[in-house]
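Subgroup meeting minutes
Present: P.N., E.W., G.H.
Scribe: E.W.

1. P.N. recapped why we're keeping a running log of single-chain structure predictions: easier to compare across weeks, and new members can see raw inputs and outputs side by side.
2. G.H. added today's entry (396 aa).
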Amino acid sequence: MIIYIHSSFVVATKTSERFIAAKMKFLLVTLLAAVASAAFAPLRTARERIEGSYIVVLKDGESLTDAVKTLKSSPKFSSFKGRINKVYGSVINGFSATLNEQALGFVRSLDNVKYVEEDGIVRASSVASWGLGRIDQRYLPLDHIYNPPGTGAGVTVNVIDTGITYTHVDFGGRAEPGFDFAGGSGEDCNGHGTHCAGTVGGRTYGVAKCVTLKSVRVLNCFGSGTFSDVIAGVDFTARDCGGGRCVASMSLGGSKSSSVDNAVANAVSKGVVVVVSAGNRNDTACNYSPAGEPTAITVGATQSDDKRSFFSNYGSCVDLFAPGSAITSAWYLSETDSNTISGTSMACPHVAGAAALLLQRGVSAGDVKSTIVSEATKGVVINPGSCSPNEFLYVE
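Output recorded in log:
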């Protein structure tokens, strides 16, 4: 009995040892996985990702120059065929890069990396002018007269878009090159940017008829682009005119992007008034970038009868509405060409022009957004959408 009991005890002990060993192994693997996961910077996804293209954001206080230099000289980074593309520095502490799976893992393992985000697609917010006559009167019917309270002289509006046709007669020599993602001159090969620039500051079609218009080309000839190029355009704008009397007009958008939103917020903190289109999906604007960034002025679109345009995004992230359906403005095919199109893209430059008028009036960059909203006409937008403010642009 004693031997049997002892034997039973020994068997039980071996079984227990096996159980404990298996459990310890499981816990060790789990712990190692957790440690490995914790050691990697977070990877943020994009709805429409660009294969192999990423935005790398460093931790606060980390040297961007040192980080880029170290990576470029790293044999491991080179062996993984990693490539650094655009280096930012003004609006986000980071860079864009082309990375395969190994290079991505290597970059995410670096101690100075805050997060990595998949690069994604952005598009022009198109689906030009009764709009001018509407924004300087409180209520319908339209009088088809526009008497602006200023001209925007001395203010620069950076049109972050498809470029500008500089020689168009409506610009009177006030349009100039700024930045081109493709390394070109910033000339428009799509029309969208020229149209928006015309609404901002064209002699015939513009809200602020004497502003300086600067081309910041971040979208291609098809009207699409990438998060990384949009950030580069915002980065240029912050360096080029931050602290001066400057507006950024961004009639574009994509899926939610922390990097794009952070870039816009940092540009605003540097004194740039940023105006963005709400988007054309008849959806809440909060789901998109840069429309959902709270420091920007986000603009929804209306028709000539004051109804919200059927395509316009809406919701709590929209700050106000402006004319956006059937807007006539300058076009890119000739020096005298015009076109009539619709979109929140067309609403955005109305507000960008109004922002330029306020800066000329002496309103500080930090107060432009609150002034535009406080001076807006209340309660005239029909069916503004769930949680939308019923505010309509008014220029006085």
